[in-house]
Amino acid sequence: MQNFNYSIPTKVAFGEGTLENLPKFVKEYGKKVLIVYGGGSIKRTGLYDKVVALLKENDIAYEELSGVEPNPRVTTVEKGVAICREKGIDVVLPIGGGSTIDCAKGIAAAYYYDGPAWDIVLNNSLVTNALPIITILTLAATGSEMDYFAVISNEEEKEKLDINSDLIYPKYSILDPTLTYSVPAYQTASGTADMMSHIFEVYFNGVKDTFFQDRIMEALLKTCIKYGPIAVKEPDNYDARANLMWTSSWAINGFIACGKSGAWPCHAIEHQLSAYYDVTHGHGLAIITPYVMKYTLNDKTVDMYVTYGINVFGIDPSLDRYEIANQAIEKTTQVFRDMGLKLTLRDIGITDKTYFEEMAVKAARGCEGSFVELTKDDIVEIFNQAF
Amino acid sequence: MQNFNYSIPTKVAFGEGTLENLPKFVKEYGKKVLIVYGGGSIKRTGLYDKVVALLKENDIAYEELSGVEPNPRVTTVEKGVAICREKGIDVVLPIGGGSTIDCAKGIAAAYYYDGPAWDIVLNNSLVTNALPIITILTLAATGSEMDYFAVISNEEEKEKLDINSDLIYPKYSILDPTLTYSVPAYQTASGTADMMSHIFEVYFNGVKDTFFQDRIMEALLKTCIKYGPIAVKEPDNYDARANLMWTSSWAINGFIACGKSGAWPCHAIEHQLSAYYDVTHGHGLAIITPYVMKYTLNDKTVDMYVTYGINVFGIDPSLDRYEIANQAIEKTTQVFRDMGLKLTLRDIGITDKTYFEEMAVKAARGCEGSFVELTKDDIVEIFNQAF
To answer: Which positions fall inside the Alcohol dehydrogenase iron-type/glycerol dehydrogenase GldA domain (chains A, B) (predicted)?
Structure first.
C-alpha cells in the first residue's frame, strides 16, 4: 500500500425528500444563490419549481445560469462568474449531473481570480479561494458531487482540461435517488458503465498489498452489476437508484484510490472516441473496456483478472486461470449488454478506421504508467478489435 | 436503505513516515499543543522523543498530560482542561489508542464549557465549540481517530457515557502503521475482534436493501479476517498493520452505518463483562459474538448468516442453509482462536455465574431494537452457553 492523504469534506444528505435541507444548507453560507443547470430537464420534471419555491419560502434570493453544455465551456463559466460578481452571489447551486456541477465548480473558483477563467484551468495553483458550492444531483455517474475535480472545455483551443483543487469540494450534496427516476435508460446504462470504469481503472493496477481497497472496489463493482440493469429496466426502482447513486460518489471521490496510483488507460483511449466521434463517454468505456481487458490478459496480469472473476462474479476458483479470466471478461461484457448498450464501434456508427492511428497516438500519451504498457500500435489493435 | 446524513471531515495522513506532517498540521491551528498520552509506552518506543523533537524544531510549544486511563476518567479530562486554560493551548494532540483520543476529545470540548466537564457528557448539547484535535494513532481498534464519539467514565457515579458531537472530529489523524508494530499480540487480537464487532453490529441488522453497505462491510470483514491473525504472528508485517489500521477507521467512522440503524446487542452484552469482570472489551466481544450468532440463528435470520458465510468465507452456496450458517459461525470462532484468544468465560477466569442475572438485566436495555429481540432471560442463556 502506498502512503496517501485522505480528505473528503463534502457533507451529504441522502434519501428521498432530502431536498428540504436545502435552505438550511444555503443559509450556512449566505442568502443569494446562483442556480446552474443544463438543458431544462429540471423544468420538465418539476424539480426547478420545487427548488425555487423552497428558496422563496426561506427568503433566499436567486439568479440563474441555464444551458450548461454536456462538456461545460469556459465561456459558460465566465458567464456565471459575471452574474456572481454583478449580483453578489454567496453560493453556487448546480442542479444536474457532472457537467453542471463541474461548470459550477469552475464558476466558484474563477470568481476569485482576476483574469480569464481559462488561466485557472491551465494553472490550478491560481485557484486560491472559491465560492461555496451546494449540489443537487440528478444523474449518478461522474462523482463530481463529492470530489475536487472539474473538467472544463475550451472550444477555441480545442482543449478539455481539469481544475483540480481542494477548494472546489462541494460543501453539501443533496442525493435524492428519486431525482434520478427520470434519467433515460441509455443515460443510466452509460452512467453505470462510467462508474464501473472509474473502479476498474483503479482496481487493475500494479500497486501491491491493497487488500482493503481491492475488496472495497469489488463491493462497488458488485453494486453496479446488480443494480445497473435493474435501473435500466425499472427506472423508478428506489433501491436500484439509491445503491447506484451512492456508488457513483464512492467510485471516484478519492477513497478507493487511497494507497494506489497509476494511469487510466481505458479513459485515455475512450477520450479519443468522444473527441473524434462524439461518443457518449460511459458508452465508449463500455465498448473499450472489455477489449482492453482481453488485450492486456497475459501471464503477468492473469491473476488480477482471476481475482476479479472469483470475487465479483463468483466464478468457480477451481477452473483454469485463463478460463476464469476469460469468463470474467465475458461476464463484464454481458453486464453492458444487459443494459442495452451496443458493444462494437461499427454498431455505434463508426464505419471506417481513418482516424485510428491518429487517435492512438494521442491515447498512448494517457496510457503512460498504466499497469500494462500500451503503445500506439497496441491501441490501434484495440480499436481494430473493437471495430 | 434509510435516509442518512454523511459527514466525515477528518483528514488523514496515512503511511510510514507521515509523522513528519505534524508541524504543518499543528501550524494550521496554532503554536501550542497539549500532548495527551497514557501509560508511557510511547516513551519506551521512542515515539514521544520523535514528536517532541519535531515540535521543538518547528517552534511549537507543548505541555503534556500523561497517565490517561484505559477508560479515561472525567477527572483526567478536567486536569487537561485546566492545563489548556492555564497555558493557552491551541491544539490537543493525543498520541495513543482510543482511550487517549477519547480523553483528548473530552478535553477539547470541555475547554469551552464553563462548569464541571461531566455536564457535557450528560448533556451533549452543551458542547458548543471544541479545541482542534490532531491525533497520532498507535493502536488500531476503536476508530476514535476518525469519528465524533468519546467515551468518558465517572468513577464516583459509576457511569461510562458518550460525548457525541460533530465538533470533536479530529482535524487531522496521522496513521502510520509502523507505530502499531509494538502493539502486543493480545492487544492486536482484541483490537481486531473489536473492529469485527463494530462491523457485525451494523451488518446483522434488520434494515433492508442496503446492498452497497453490506458488500462494503464484507470487504472490511475480509480484511480483518485475513490480516488479524497475520499481525498477531508477525507484529512488524507492514501490509497487515496497514490494512488493519485503515479498516479500524472505516469500521466505525459512520460510513457503513449510513442507511442503516439499530441496536448493538453484542456490545450491550459485552459491556457487562467489562464492567463486572474487567474483561478487555475486544476479547469480551470475541467470546460473546459467536454465542449471540448461534442463539439468534433462526428461520428469520438464517439468510443473513448464509450471506455472510458465502460472501465473507466463500462457503459453498449449494449447501443447506443452516449448514452454511453454522459453518460461518464456526469460521468466525476460528478467526478469534487463530489470534490466540480464549473463547469461553471459564477460560478467562470467570468461575461462577453469580452476576449473570444482574448483568443480563442491564444488557437487555442496550439490546432494545436489535435485529432479534433479546430479553434478560435470553441473555442469561447466552452467558450460560458462553460459560
So the answer is: 9-177
